[in-house]
Amino acid sequence: MIPSAPPTPIGQPLAIDGGPPVVAGPLPSIRDASGRLIGAEEEALVREVIRSGTLAYIYGDKVRRFEAEFARLHGVRHAVAVSSGTAALHTAMIYLDPEPGDEVIVSPLTDMGSVIPILYQQAVPVFADVDPRTQNLDPRSVAALVSPRTRAIMVTHLYGNPADLDPLLAVARRHDLAVIEDCAQAHLARYRGRLVGTFGHLGCFSFQQSKHITTGDGGMVIAAEDGRHGRRLRECFDKGWPRDRPGRDHLFLAPNYHLTELQAAVGLAQLGKYPACLSGRQRAARQLDGLLADEPAVEPVAVQDGAEAVYFYYCFRLRAGALRVAPAQFVAALTAEGVRCEQGYPGPVPLYAYPVIRDRRTFGRSGWPFTSPPARRDWTYPPGTCPVAERLCQETVVLPWNERLEPAHVAAIAAAVRKVADAYRA
Ligand SMILES: Cc1ncc(COP(=O)(O)O)c(C=O)c1O
User: Fold this and answer.
1) pTM of the entire predicted model
2) Ligand 1 centroid from CA 100, angstroms
3) 211 alpha carbon to ligand 1 midpoint, in Å?
């Protein structure tokens, strides 16, 4: 249903105050078919798997084909499919095999799925601050945090917007650090013309429901080379088991993160949807950029120079002093107008303010790895750890985005933003 979109709902009371909402009907959503490109192609391949009776990847060919096509798409030699984006990042961490207490520099503006794998490997997350324009890692902050215990930099390409890789890779090269690219939100985004995920040592993807292509849940790790640290990627998500050799063996500690043949069947069909997904999201984002260009209260998150963004979310900051209400009130009012949105990402506070990290709720009462004997120090992350990120979490409005937003939907979203901004203008 196309919502009603009065171009200038001037004079109407806000919906939060009892007025009519700008967006009368539901907008397309990633939660169901309204906002996703899932159909006959997926159905046919899933039916094939069901009829074959082979659901497990170790006996089938769908996961292998999904991996091969994903590797080919990225021009890399290796790709392994796993059960989630978190599993992909954990597989990458297992591959790097850090010593307990080693440090991984990471953004505080990312999903907890970026940090959980660091903690499970008994390594310590070190949160670097972000660039206020793009909200991605600030290379100067990263450089300042490198220590003799730093093992890797995990670079999230947030909101589908590539991070500034050149200076980040320079820091990594200078200190001989591994680089894990977290591309969960940035499928086929480009930096200086090249696909993200192919710059670092390992590129990790998520196929969770909201991602550019989806298998419900799922993930992928890509790499130019395998076995570099004495481990092969395929063993890092498969109980340390070298299945290409006869018999059973378990070479090191690793979980079972298999993707199933059913999921890979969906994934194979979804690969064909990338062009429509990317162009739909980009077209809608460009339209909203244009419609909000002269709205003084909002400032869209900047796309990195030399990059092509793929819009996992559409995000803007509320300009300090432009409105007479707090950002939470703006978000509540915009939601009431029929535009679902959130304050900040991963929320109104950065990752380190969530109980798992703030209160060190990890392994029993140990507080490990934050407090573990091999760590360089006792790790705490008090307010003020990353001041720019903390401010952005407060000021940013996050709009869920998808490839089925039509021009009328985007016009309605813009009208709602303007209505709320007009009502609350300072
Ligand atoms: C940037 C980022 N990293 C990691 C993840 C974890 O992926 P998953 O939810 O598939 O485990 C997500 C998921 O939202 C994400 O957005």
Assistant:
1) 0.97
2) 24
3) 9
